[in-house]
Amino acid sequence: MIPIQLTLEGLYSYQERQKIDFENLTEAGLFGIFGSVGSGKSSILEAISFALYGETERLNSRDKRAYNMMNLKSNKSYIEFDFINFENKKYRATREFRRNTKNFEDVKTPTVTFYEWNNGVWIPLEHSNAEKIVGLSYANFKRTIIIPQGQFKEFLELGATERTNMMKEIFSLQRFDLQNNVSVLNAKNKSELDQLEGQLKGFEEVNEEQIAEQKEHLKLEQQKFEELKIQFKQIEEKYQQLKNLKTDFESLKQKKSDFEKLSIQKTEVDELEIKTELFDKVFRIFTPIIAEKNKLQKEILEQQKNKENQSKLLQETETRFEDIKNKLAALLPKFEALDQSKIQENDLGLILKMLEFSNDIQALKIRTEKGSDKVKEVETAQNLIQKKITELADHVDILKPKKIDSHILMNVGNWFLAQKNLTESAKNQNEKIEDLQDKIGKQNAELIPYSINTETFREDFRLKFDALETDAKKLSERKSQLEVQQKLAHFAGELHDGESCPLCGAVEHPNIVEFDDVNAELNQIKKELEQIEIKKDFNQKQLAEIEKILDRKKIFEEQQKAELENLNQIKIKTENHRINFSWTDFNAQNENEFLQKRQQSFEIEKQTEELNRQISEQQKTLEKERGHLEKYKKALEEFKLDEAKKEEQIKTSEANLKILKWSDYREKESGEIEDTYKKLAQSNLETARDYQQLVKDEKEISPKLAEQKTIVDQVEKRISELEKEIFENENILTKSLVENNFSDLPAVQNILIQEINVQAVRNQIQQFRIQFETLKNGIADLEAKLKDFSFDEEQFATAESQFTTAENDLKNANNNVVKISSEIERLEKEFKKKEDLLKDLNQLQKRAENLKIMTNLFKAAGFVQYVSSIYLRQLCDHANVRFHRMTRNQLSLQLNENNDFEIIDYLNEGRSRSVKTLSGGQAFQVSLSLALALAESVQANAKSDRNFFFIDEGFGTQDLESVNIVFETLMNLQKENRIVGIISHVEELKEKIPVSLNITKDEERGSLIEVV
Description:
The protein is 70% helix and 10% strand. It is built from 22 helices and 16 strands. The chain has helices at residues 22-27, 41-53, 65-69, 130-134, 138-144, 154-157, 160-170, 179-201, 208-336, 338-399, 406-447, 457-493, 519-579, 591-655, 670-739, 745-752, 758-785, 793-858, 862-886, 920-942, 960-975, 987-992; strands at 2-9, 18-21, 30-35, 76-84, 90-100, 103-107, 111-118, 121-124, 146-147, 891-895, 901-905, 911-914, 947-951, 978-984, 995-1002, 1006-1011. The strands form three sheets. Strands 1, 2, 4, 5, 6, 7 and 8 form a seven-stranded antiparallel sheet that branches. Strand 7 and strand 8 (121-124) form a beta hairpin. The two termini are 24 Å apart.
């Protein structure tokens, strides 16, 4: 992350809006933020953290954070931070919160918005997740980019688990945590393996031998089936002939039986046909006439009932119409006088307003008198305050000449402080040199027992090693000869005539060699070889110990040389520093005199500040009084103007009166007039409303009355028409009865009551006649066909039995063939499936073995911890490059077997110790080295061209030389394309850094920022 711009307002000691342009600062590579204690330096880093994450180091959400962060003189806090993230994209984060105007301690929850710079404009984002944009959580942000006060050693002292989690997040090590993935794969593989083994249990009896056996069986069954098929064909032909003959004889018998039944039914069918034709004729002639008659009778009854209802409704409408006309006649006189009554109502309303204005005028006159007295009182207080301000200003003018310039005091104080630091540094250097001299003496004392020449000792030990190697080689050769001789003696002792030799295979052994016993000599050689190895180990240890002592001595001598050089540099700086003392009002040899004068100047400055504070308070009080005076004067003017307006409104209202007179009501009570006004207004309202409603009702009912009369007339006319139509229908019915020879209507109705379905009955009769003729013709055909044939039932039964038996045998043979074929097909498919399952089983078993190895590898995030340890060791190596230089090769950082940091102390034989044993200055040095290494690693991981790093502590713990080393380290970062910002009050750093921000705190304006 690279900062671009920061804007602050109303935050901590920042009262006025302050803006920091980081682009000029970051171009320098190294910049600083300097100021006195409490000036607001650290607040800049808190503003950046709070803008991004809504978190601060000093306060949490339980500490009333918003209230405590807001400047006590401000009602609004605002932070705006522009930056470039690891993807080289430009973003802006803003947070704003305001104070409740009614409750000073109530500060509303901050509002936060993030923006992205896109095509020349700021586009608001839908989220405010800084971790997603910056790529770091808040905890790791304050460990790798902005390190607040008190947190510099946090990464160094983190536990192994917390440090692993931090490395996991920063370097995305979760991609190495494959435990869950492996568990899922293992569970899936186990499930598939169990399922496959379960499936294979069903294939235990499926094999090639079983398939071959079934194929042989199929061949026999197919041969049997073909033989049965030929026999069945012969039997089937004979049986089919007899079956056809039987069918014809049975059919003839059945047809004759059916024909006899139809002959009996023929009379009934003839009668039904006559009855149906009569019904059809009557239905077609009389049904329309009777339906029309019924329809007319029904309608005339409905119309008569409707006439009765409509006549009743007409009578009610006429009664209501007469009632409305009577009410209108009674209300008309009152309505005609309504205009005059409304004028009187309007006059009473005007008189009520005039009485109200009159009362307001009396109240305004009282308030004007009181306001005039208050104006005089405020003017007197204002004159007294002005007099007090003049007296305080005169006192300030008297004190000003006695005060010494603060810049001179600061420069002289810095000179004495630097002088003291140089003296202390020289003293410390002498102590270090003496301490190193003692350590060199101890190393020389340790070398005395060895009696060596430091120039040639390595060559001397090499000659000893070569001599021992030569002796050992000779003894080893002799040992080999004796062992061969011993083995041959053993073979010779085992030779017997007739038995083959184990070496040459001969069965005859004419000249067996005799050997002397060599065991004693072999044992002696082995002892001598062991003594040589002991001597070699002893010499090796002596050489290693001597080299270790000489290495320590060399380190101490190099350190002593470096310390001597540092001492000379301090002496030169001390002399140059003394020459630079140029203040004639002070003595370079008398610091106490300077301290007394500075204290006196401080006392005068405090008095001046107190007087200025009192003047400021009096001026504020004066401004308040002036504001009050203006307010009161303005109010008096408003009272007088309001009084004049109300007088004018009374005159205007009096001119608008038409009936009543103002003089008759001026002394009356408003309540009495208001009651009269309300009653009159209510009466007028009711009169107008009732008259309008009656007129409306009259207009609505008149057309309804006419309409109702029309409806009654139309109903009477329709009844007359229906009576005429009924008479005509009776004539038509009588004429039809005569023409068709019916005595009366009931005779017709008796026929129609049968409800015969004419078409269905006709179809039924036609089907009967067709069936009758068909049977008759069929019987004649069969009798002609069977004229020369006869049928034997026993012969047919025998043939049928033979056919059934042959058919069953053929069917069983076919079923056997199909069954065996299906079984062979099933077995072949099952066998193929079994082969495929065995292949899959083999693959899954191999996969299970591999997954077991992977499960052990990734168990309990062990692989992540392993990778994290690699990153940490690389981090140690990178940090040691700077830490060695800062400690003059005296200390080194390493990881122990528990992945905790330890210190290697080369001044104490390279032994390790806890990082908690470091001094404050050393802890700062190693923390700085680690933080820089971590920042570099984060940059490399994010693939960003530049990286930003902010430090807010630590430099006050360093001596002058260490400060120089740290500063040189930070300057070298500029060459590595790193950006480092530091916050400090150490003057030596301020003089060395090319560009910086200077924070000053003004009592009235709060913290102010200027670029130096």
